[in-house]
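look at this stuff:

>
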Amino acid sequence: MIQAIREKYNAAFKEENYQKFLQHLDGLFNKEVIFRVAETPIFVDKTLKTTLIFACENIIDEILNPNFKELTQRAIPKNLEVKNENDHPHFICIDFGICEDALGNLIPQMIEMQGFASLYAWENIIGNQYKEHFYCPPNFNHLLSNLDSDSYTALLKKVVLANCNPEEVVLMDLKPHEQKTRIDFYATHDLLGIPIVCLSDLIQKENKLFYLKDGVKMPIKRIYNRLIFDDLAANPDFTYSADLFSDLDVEWVGHPNWFYRISKYTMPFLNNAFVPKTQFLHEVATIPNDLEHYVLKPLFSFSGQGVIIDVTLEDITKIEDPENWILQSKVKYAEVIESPTGKVKCEIRMMYLWPDGDKRPTLATNLGRMSKGKMIGVRYNQNMDWVGGNIAFFED
């Protein structure tokens, strides 16, 4: 997006160096990275950086509204509500598509948000690896809020570990070693020292949870939760014994209820120039005549599943539970990144960390994604180059 930097980067790019970069990533933990990593990071100038931060902080102000929990209570499915919810999310991630306004200026438009952990360990690694293997100007950084790698790691530890020893905290998911984001699990284990456990590995005795370490039953004080509870319904044959919905003597990082509260469900309540107009489908009084300018999204889905891009009246009339869908003004991504094989769209996820006791979350790092397809995400960009996951470097 910065022409001089892009031209210099592309001119210096060599496919053989990119392949060495990928091999190096696979070798970091002796585990293959199973999602596509893009050939380039995203370079963001001061103006767009300032606008992105302004948009984020306005959204954070909405989340800090005293009645936010009341507004979002219906977001939590009745059968998936977990006890002992804390006062605020530990993680807030806000996804922005990079677009153009009427004058051709680059502006962010919010796509989604989540009160759920993202690739917090991996993104710091990938940022440093891009710097090591490719051209990056010295006055650009992937970390925010004046953080460096040491202070960022300290902040992440404060959020995940709090006052616990690493062996008292577990990173928990369903079949974690089969997840597409598993590389972040290995990076987290390496960085924080916490074990990676499957939901089926949890042992419950009364209201306490344990896991086995070298055959010894270890108590769990905090769960770094990477489990999306919807996945349990999608895996009906998966068996486990712990009752996560009982009154457990455990702290959640972050608590599962925040996954639902801070989600697509929140968007209709946001009054922000950087949030496209969004309505609950059952509250739409008149169906727009120009449905080609809208997108239809299920409230309870992940990674773009179930989203209808080319909406028709028939699509809307077929929906039996309109209260669980949103109709959102379509965001037109700008093809802002020049690649050797054509122009590319991009999306930037701004990632906050919120330790217990802090009044506001801290904007810490980011995640980038590049696309030539209709939607952002690897599954929508099969057999394409200069697409995939990456990170943005922001001008100081």
Notes: Residues 46-63 form the longest helix (18 residues). The mean pLDDT is 93. The first strand starts at residue 42 and ends at 44.
